[in-house]
Amino acid sequence: MTAPDWAARPLVLAPMAGGPSTVTLAAEVARAGVFPFLAGAYLSPQRLADDVAELRSRSSGPFGVNVFAPSPDHPSMLEDARAYAANLAPWAAAAGVVLGEPRYDDDAFDAKVEVLVAAAPAVVSFAFGWPPAEVVARLQAVGCQVWVTVNDPQEADWARELGVDGLVAQGWEAGGHRGGPVDSGGEQLPVRELVNALRARSDLPLMAAGGVVSGAAAAELLELGATAVAMGTVFLACPEAGTAPVHVDALTRRDRTVVTRAFTGRSARALATTWTDLFTEAAPAAYPHVHHVTAPLRAHGKATGEAELVHLWAGAGHAEVRALPAAELAALLVAELAAAKSR
Questions:
Q1: pLDDT tens sequence across 273-290
Q2: Which among 106, 181, 185, 190 is placed 20 to 30 Å from 259, CA to CA?
Q3: How far apart are the C-alpha atoms of 293 and 101, rounded to whole Å?
Q4: Residue 202 and residue 225: Cα distance in Å, rounded?
């Protein structure tokens, strides 16, 4: 297995679970010099194994896989999610949708760990919760680098105790879920400040993420001391991505993003919609219970093209998204980075 050469490939395709991440997207950006990640969250263990095998058949270079580690479960979460479902029910009924039942699950975590130990990708990263030390050791024993997501500089101390190989420094501007182990619900550091704070606190390699949509912006983060820079939103409009058409259409038509628990019960940055305006204040911290409640309504919105019913994940730089083929966009980002470094 080839270890990542971050100096040669410092730009990273961020994992985007729930549809946008595809094997084709990963293979195409790899061809153009960007380090690819597959998103393992929400997939069955077998589908994850199949995706890893397919990417290996299409690309000879190293790649990463991201999975969600189990979130904490508290008895109050089920009650809070039921209350939120009652609040949402009239709105869902107006759309002709029956909401799902709130429940807890761990996204088949143990089975996915077995898949990853057997497949041994170059990097395994974790979001939401963090893996047990035994899982970290097993993955490292087969040659995987293990990275965890942080939103707060103090989390670097926990990561060092866990023995991981690197930190994904997810700034406040990032689209999608807050990936760190604590969903505080409050505003967190923007990516530049987070990188600076982590560099002062830890010598672990850093992968910076948060609203980066150009090679020039990535160069600034590398200059601050990031080892690599992950980019997700910028790839959402690529034809190789599995992004829903209604989501792609909204990226450059809407001008405001919000961080909300309204869709899943966990804080996430999305384009503002009627849903976020009406229900952000009412949404509890109850992931994945709320995720299961709202899944039918969000699926209906995707299928019918009703943007107000879709979780339109997007980073702060969404207005600058370029709808290009993945390899062309990746090559352009690499060229922008090289140009910025040469100035």
A1: 999 999 999 999 999 999
A2: 106
A3: 5
A4: 11
Query: Measured between alpha carbons, how far is 166 from 225 in angstroms, rounded to an integer?
Result: 13
**Alpha-carbon span 151 to 171, nearest angstrom:** 6
45-64 core/surface letters (b: 16 or more CB in 10 A; e: else): beebbebbebbeeebebbbb
The two three-digit tokens of residue 33, written as one number: 């010099």
Domain range annotation of the chain: 1-70+106-242+317-343, 73-105+255-311
Task: Give CA–CA dist 161/274, Å, rounded.
Answer: 43
Report the C-alpha gap between 242 and 23 in whole angstroms: 10
Q: What is the residue type of 107? A: D
Dihedral sign, CA of 256, 262, 267, 268?
negative
| C-alpha torsion sign, points 281, 285, 287, 292 | negative
Q: CB–CB of 228/208 below 8 Å?
A: yes
Asked if 137 and 68 touch (Cβ cutoff 8 Å), the reply is no
Mean pLDDT of 209-227: 97
Contacts of 155 (CB under 8 A, 6+ apart): 180, 181, 182
Q: pTM of this prediction?
A: 0.97
User: In this structure, what DSSP letter does residue 240 have?
Assistant: T
Kindly report the three-state secondary structure assignment for every residue of 36-66.
EEEECCCCCHHHHHHHHHHHHHHCCCCCEEE
CATH pick for 1-70+106-242+317-343 out of 3.40.50.720, 3.40.50.150, 3.20.20.70, 1.10.3880.10: 3.20.20.70
